Amino acid sequence: MSIQERLLHSVEAIEEHYNAGDYIFREDGTPQFYYQIVDGEVKLNSYSEDGKEFIQNILSGNACFGESMLILGKPYPVNAVAITKSTILKIGRDQFFQLLQGHPHIFLDMYKTLSEKTSEKMVLMQKITGKNAEERLMELMNQMKESRENKEKFSFEIPHTRQQLASLAGLSLETAIRAIKRMEKNEILVIKNGKIFY
Fold first, then answer.
1. What is the pLDDT along the chain (198 residues), one digit of tens a residue?
2. Which of 106, 125, 144 represents a domain boundary (last residue)?
3. What residues does the Cyclic nucleotide-binding domain cover (predicted)?
4. Which of 80, 83, 94, 96 has the fewest CB atoms nearer than 10 Å to its CB?
């Protein structure tokens, strides 16, 4: 779900540029803006008490983020961090609600998208809980590939690093690497030039 850029600019959207590793917002911060990616990649993450990163999501290409907390008015439960050099459009809370009032279809689209994300997360968490590393990674890759038209084996290039896959599946990097090697050996995936194809 994204809002047309012209509509964002009509309510005085601000364009900001971030380098890889820059924080866009931090966990426990107060939501004040609606954010939408123009280009680049952003991860939503959190850290356990022992410092282990857990990636909740990786976003790119017109994706919006932080909107649910802006609507609820609750502190962010995650950080938003640029993975690559990124350009982000943002509008303030008041402009955001003004835009929703003037264009109710945007709110309905947003509600549908948030519902889909929640459903996908619940299904994924249910499927990966208690499963071994390969099964977790397969569930994650299946979900990534689900929206693609081409469902043929090895047709989908996984757009994430091994570290990101590990974090998304709740695994250590070492466990994920070993699992990926076993999956390659069992012809579940192929690796070409360091890229994983599923």
1. 689 999 999 999 999 999 999 999 999 999 999 999 999 999 999 998 888 898 988 999 889 999 989 999 999 999 999 999 999 999 999 999 999 999 999 988 888 888 887 887 777 777 667 678 998 899 889 988 887 888 889 999 999 999 999 988 888 999 999 999 999 999 999 999 999 999
2. 125
3. 15-117
4. 94
**How far is CA 173 from its chain centroid?**
19
Same domain, 181 and 103: no
Answer yes or no: do 110 and 150 share one domain: no
Which domain, by its residues, includes 23? Answer: 5-125
Q: What would the DSSP string read from start to end of the chain?
A: ----HHHHHHTT-EEEEE-TT-EEE-TTPPP-EEEEEEESEEEEEEE-TT--EEEEEEEETT-EESHHHHHHT---SSEEEESSSEEEEEEEHHHHHHHHHH-HHHHHHHHHHHHHHHHHHHHHHHHHTT--HHHHHHHHHHHHHTT-S--STT--B--S-HHHHHHHHT--HHHHHHHHHHHHHTTS-EEETTEEE-
Statement: the pTM of the whole predicted model exceeds 0.85? no
CA distance 140 to 135: 9
